[in-house]
Automatic annotation (TrEMBL):
Catalysed reaction, written as an equation: 2 GTP = 3',3'-c-di-GMP + 2 diphosphate
Record domain Response regulatory: where: 8-124
Family matches, as SMART domains: GGDEF, REC
All copies of domain GGDEF, residue ranges: 167-301
Protein name: diguanylate cyclase
Species in which this protein is naturally found: Thiomicrospira aerophila AL3
Gene Ontology biological-process entries: cell adhesion involved in single-species biofilm formation; negative regulation of bacterial-type flagellum-dependent cell motility; phosphorelay signal transduction system
Entry annotated with the keyword Phosphoprotein: yes
A single Gene Ontology CC term: plasma membrane
Listed InterPro entries: CheY-like_superfamily, Diguanylate_Cyclase, GGDEF_dom, Nucleotide_cyclase, Rev_trsase/Diguanyl_cyclase, Sig_transdc_resp-reg_receiver
GO molecular function: diguanylate cyclase activity
Length: 301
């Protein structure tokens, strides 16, 4: 819903005049949204977690600003949005409380608009840099899919979530066949290109929201399929294998085909702890080893 180039500012204040003064001062540089209660603020942010900053009043009927701040900071989806309190409460203890709840800044009313603008600008610039860093640290540089770090974090998060349900978790480990020979024969540059193409093909298969495809290591990929049983995971594994075969990347040194192929190991189970999810990953890896032993270019469950 937002124009990517114009940062978005949510103003939360039960007093329309206050909100209007802030909005008028900021509207040339930002997209401004205004809500007039803590409750509406929580609903709005939940629906729009990509907001760049929140200017938050403290004294409001229903949910006050402190409560809004602590709820947003304790939710992973909204914790990274900078919150600046803008409040008539001007005791040092009020400010201390606000900052301790995770707000980046505290501005007392009456404020100097120019200073509010300068602070908003600085906080948004930092926020965008943090977002970029977070994104970079979770992506593989070559293939632009998730990296090992994101895979590990997602596996832990998904297992904590699935532990509370009876839904199964499926994992797939994949590995390119005879890739050492590919590199040796075609060179490292074409090897890199091959990895990029394979990642792209896999990506076109793993489309369901909640699923995750990652580059796990050199020429190894891994997939997390929450709430997917064995039969479902096998269909996905077959789809992944076929997506790479369809690329028809010439591989003269492969012993199983004239083009690049992959092998996969699949594991599925309900899980009751993070340890069990890690165990499930080991099972997928064992299955992958079996697929290699049985002749490659196939999956084993
Ligand atoms: P198998 O069929 O049993 O999987 O054998 P393999 O040759 O594919 O596997 P092996 O583990 O012996 O070799 C993996 C190769 O992958 C060796 C390594 O140089 C290459 N590789 C790993 N990461 C990269 C990368 O980022 N770029 C390129 N070009 N090659 C890579
Ligand atoms: Mg108020
Ligand atoms: Mg390997
Ligand atoms: Mg390999």
């Amino acid at each position: 819903m937002f124009d990517e180039n114009k940062p978005s500012v949510l103003i939360v204040d039960d007093e329309p005049t206050n909100a209007k003064i802030l909005a008028n001062g900021l509207k040339d540089d930002y997209q401004i949204m205004i809500v007039n209660s803590g409750k509406k603020a929580l609903e709005f942010v939940k629906a729009n977690p990509k907001l760049d900053i929140i200017l938050l009043d403290i004294m409001m009927p229903d949910v006050d600003g402190y409560e809004v701040c602590s709820r947003l900071k304790s939710d992973e989806a909204t914790a990274a949005i900078p919150i600046v309190f803008v409040s008539a409460l001007n005791q040092a203890t009020d400010e201390e409380k606000g900052l301790n709840l995770g707000a980046v800044d505290y501005i007392s009313k009456p404020f100097h608009l120019a200073i509010v603008k300068a602070r908003v600008k600085n906080h948004i610039s930092l926020k965008r840099k943090n977002d970029l860093l977070a994104e970079m640290s979770h992506l593989d540089v070559l293939t632009h899919i998730a990296n090992r770090r994101q895979f590990d974090e997602t596996l832990v998060r998904e297992s904590l979530r699935l532990m509370r349900s009876s839904a199964p978790l499926s994992l797939i480990m994949l590995d390119i066949d005879f890739f050492k020979q590919f590199n040796d024969f075609y060179g490292h540059g074409l090897g890199d290109l091959c990895l990029e193409k394979v990642a792209k093909a896999f990506n076109s298969v793993i489309k369901r929201p909640g699923d995750l495809l990652a580059r796990y290591g050199g020429e190894e990929f891994a997939v997390i399929l929450p709430e997917t049983d064995k039969a479902g995971a096998e269909v996905v594994a077959q789809g992944l294998i076929e997506s790479v075969a369809a690329l028809q990347i010439k591989h003269e040194r492969s012993e199983v085909a004239s083009y690049v192929t992959v092998s996969a190991g699949v594991s599925s189970d309900t899980i009751e702890s993070v340890d069990e999810a890690l165990e499930l990953l080991k099972r997928a890896d064992v299955a992958l080893y079996q697929a290699k032993k049985q002749g490659k270019n196939r999956f084993v469950t």
